[in-house]
Amino acid sequence: MKEISHDPYAVFRLREYKFYLANRFLLTMGITMQSVIVAWQVYAITKDVFALGMIGLSEAIPFIVISIFSGHIADTFNRKKIILLFTFLFILVTGALLYLSTDASSFIKNYGTLPIFSMIVLVGVIRGFLSAAFPSILSQIVPRALYANAATWNSTVWHSASILGPSVAGLLIAVGYTAAYTVDIAFISLSFLAFLFIASKPIPSREKSETLYESLTAGIKFVFKNQIVLGALSLDLFAVLFGGAVALLPAFADKVLHAGAIELGFLRAAPALGAVLMAFIIAYKPPTKNAGRNLFLSVAAFGLSTIFFGLSENIWLAFFFLFLTGAFDNVSVVIRHTILQLATPDNMRGRVSAVNGIFIGSSNEIGAFESGATARAFGLKPSIILGGILTILVVSVTAKLAPKLRHLNIKDL
Q1: Which pTM does this prediction carry?
Q2: CATH code at 388?
């Protein structure tokens, strides 16, 4: 077993894991494409950086609210059916965005961006259920010894899709919103088909009967009683919250770099490109030894890279520092996912994943709102620089408050 756990490609021996990765790649393509298309469309209509922030808030609020229940659902019902159902609903919502963007629709002409924001709210609900179910079923596909290996390749595939998704979206936006949304629907539909090849898994048995209230709050109680898990989630929460420069890319590309939709797509892909390169390094040299120290250093480097991005006025420098943010962020992603998989009991994975979603998944959207609001108040570049500074401050505070995390070695879990 020791030899297998050090094989960078050990997890690819599992047939269902390969279909899981295919689904994640295709679905992430759909999600990242949609985020770029919607952001560019809203900014084209409003020319307002605050509207970009409102996109994030419109998705984050329903995401947080539904996550309170989605974890309980993921630990109570068939996880495969949950994923298939909400992926199908995602197809329908994207189809609605396609219709709203056609000449045949008069909704945008009459109501502006309101119909688009209505669909974003539904996307928040859908992602709330998917974010609880996906990590939960992964532990039933991959053996415990390969959790870190699986987390590395999950991140690689996710970021690979995040490179291609925005780039493809940028190219298609130049053609038209109809073409962009049509291709987006195709990727989400293919992700649905890929997941059909994964067998249904049994619902984990619970050690004791729980009331609905006890079940809903169990994940929150588990996280807040575990200093290592709470510290890792809090570190990423505030780092992403304050370091949400990507949300301002449409405005940054337009006002600072004087670039168009195609350049926006490549800039949006830069963090993912850095993450993929780092993922291959991590696959051969996992950051599990001195994981806590590596986690803090990577998030601090993420904040510093964000500061330099905010200072950039050249598209290549901006691309380079965005590349670095993705590379350093991926180290923390792999460590955090491995901690969650190893520290969480099987019958609580849905609820703990839901709490993780509230901490991390929603922080991207709330971070987008914070970035938009700060950009309106202080200016575009100062808001990005301030976000990087606050990220570094968060690292310092968390290091003092979570000494167990600071000294963590993954092998000790």
Answers
A1: 0.76
A2: 1.20.1250.20
Query: pLDDT tens track of the chain, all 413 residues?
Result: 344 446 788 889 999 999 999 999 999 999 989 988 998 888 888 888 778 778 878 888 898 889 888 888 988 889 999 999 999 999 999 999 999 888 666 777 777 888 899 999 999 999 999 988 998 898 889 988 888 788 888 888 887 887 788 888 988 998 999 999 999 999 999 999 999 999 998 887 766 667 767 777 888 888 888 888 888 888 877 777 776 667 778 788 888 888 877 787 778 778 878 988 888 888 788 777 788 899 999 999 999 999 999 898 888 999 999 999 989 988 888 888 888 888 887 778 888 888 887 777 666 666 667 777 777 788 888 888 888 898 899 899 988 888 988 888 877 76
Cα dihedral: 82, 131, 225, 348 (round 10): 20
Q: What total number of domains does the chain contain?
A: 1
Residue 205 inside a domain? The answer is no
Q: Give a yes or no: residue 206 inside a domain.
A: no
**What does the longest C-alpha to C-alpha distance in the chain come to?**
63
Residue 207 lies in a domain: no
Terminus-to-terminus CA distance in the chain, angstroms? Answer: 17
Tell me the residue range of the domain where 40 lies.
2-196+212-412
